Amino acid sequence: MLTTAETYHVPVLLQESVDGLDIQPDGIYVDVTFGGGGHSKEILSRLGKNGRLYSFDQDADAEKNIVDDDRFTFVRSNFRYIGQWMRYYGVEQIDGLLGDLGVSSHHFDDETRGFSFRFDAPLDMRMNKRAGQTAADILNNYSEEQLADVFYLYGELKNARRIAKAISDYRRQQNILTTGQLAEATEALMRSEREKKDMARLYQALRIEVNHEMDALRDMLKGATALLREGGRLSIITYHSLEDRIVKNVMKAGNAEGKVEQDFFGRISSPYRLVNKVTVPSDEEQQRNPRSRSAKLRIAEKI
Q1: Which residues lie closer than 8 Å to 252 by C-beta, 6 or more apart?
Q2: Can you say whether the dihedral through the CA atoms of 11, 14, 17, 22 is positive or negative?
Q3: Helices marked H in 47-101 — which ranges?
Q4: d(CA 205, CA 104)
Q5: In 154-291, at which residue ranges do the beta strands (DSSP E only) sit?
Q6: 156-195: pLDDT as tens digits
Q7: For 253-268, how does the pLDDT look when each residue is reduced to its tens digit (9 = 90+)?
Q8: Residue 69 above 70 pLDDT?
Q9: Can you say whether the dihedral through the CA atoms of 209, 214, 219, 224 is positive or negative?
Q10: Terminal CA-to-CA distance of the chain, rounded, Å?
C-alpha cells in the first residue's frame, strides 16, 4: 500500500488538541510529534503570516510528509532535545506545544519495523532507525532480572518474572530475532482470553525501553516548561497510564514525580493552571480510528 501523509498517521483529537493551544496568529508553536503532519497542518492553518511552527520527529519516514511552508521548520531529532534546538534557532519563548504521544499508525502497520505482533518481522522497534539498540538486542542481551524489571515497570505485567524466565530459557537454544520467535518463546504463558492484551503490554514495554520513552518525555516536558511564556499552552495526548501519569504530574505539580510544593497558605505551587480535566475521543472518532480509544487529552496554561 502506498504510504501518504493521510495514511501514515490519522491524527487523534485533532480539533480538540489544536483548539487547546488557543493559537495566536503571530505566535511561535511546537509540534513535538510531527508524524504524518496532521496536527502541524491544522496549526499552520490558524497561524498568520508572521507565525512560526517547529515540528519534531526522529523517524526518517516522517520526513516524506514535510510541509512546504515558509512558516514551518522540520527538526529531525528526538523531542527530548527541544531546549537545545530552540536555542539553535534563536527561540527564547514559545506560545504553545502540542504532543501526540505513543506510536503512529504507520509504525503499527509497517510490517518491517517490528512494532506489531500481527506480522512476523524483525524485532526492531526503534523510532530512529539510524541509532540505538533494537528490541532483539534487549531480548538477547539483558539479564533475566533486567527483562523482568522492564516487563513489570513498562508493561505492568503481573507475570513479568515468568515471561522473562521463558525468554531466558528460549534464547539458550537460539537468539530471539523476530516477532514470531518472541511469540513462540512466550506462548505457554499467554492465556487465550488475555493473549492480545498481554502481548500488547509486552510489546509496549519493549518499545518504551528501546526508545527510552519515559526519560525522553520527562526531558521534553521540562524543556517545554522552561520555554513556554506566561499564558502559553501545553496540549498533550497520552495513550497509556505511564505517560499519562507523567503529564498529569507535570501539569499539576510542575514535575514528573508529582511532588507537590505548597506556599505558606497551603496553596499548591505549580507553573501551570489546568485548562481541562481530561478530554477523550467521541464515540464516532473511536469507531473511525481505533487507535484513539485509549487516548486522553490534557491541556494546561503556563502561569
Answers
A1: 258, 260, 268, 270, 272, 274
A2: positive
A3: 82-88
A4: 16
A5: 228-238, 261-262, 268-269, 272-274
A6: 999 999 999 999 999 999 999 999 999 999 999 987 667 7
A7: 999 999 988 877 777 7
A8: yes
A9: positive
A10: 47
Per the DSSP assignment, residues forming a β-bridge with 55 are 31, 74
**3-state DSSP assignment of residue 192:** coil
pLDDT digits (tens, 9 = 90+) for 74-93: 999 999 999 999 999 999 99
Local structure of residue 132 (DSSP, 8 states): S
The count of C-alpha atoms lying within 13 angstroms of the C-alpha of 168, restricted to the half-sphere facing its C-beta, is 13
Helix (H) or strand (E) holding 17: helix 14-19
For residues 120, 141, 244, 10, the Cα torsion angle rounded to the nearest 10 degrees is -30
Cα 42 to chain center, whole Å? 19
Nearest to 51 by CA among 35, 31, 32: 31
Residues 6+ away with beta carbon under 8 Å from 217: 80, 101, 243, 246, 247, 256
For the cut 50, the answer to whether the pLDDT of residue 2 exceeds it is no
Alpha helices in 89-171 (DSSP H): 105-109, 135-141, 144-155, 160-171
> What are the cell numbers at 152?
513489570
Residue 58 three-state SS: coil
Q: Which of 19, 15, 31 is CA-nearest to residue 69?
A: 31
Measured in whole angstroms, the distance separating CA 198 from the mean position of its chain's CA atoms is 20
Count the Cβ atoms, other than its own, within 10 Å of residue 73. Answer: 17
Q: What band does 60 get if pLDDT is binned at 50, 70 and 90?
A: confident
**Rama region for 40: left / alpha / beta (φ>0; ψ in -120 to 50; rest):** alpha
Of 237, 236, 226, residue with least CA distance to 271: 226
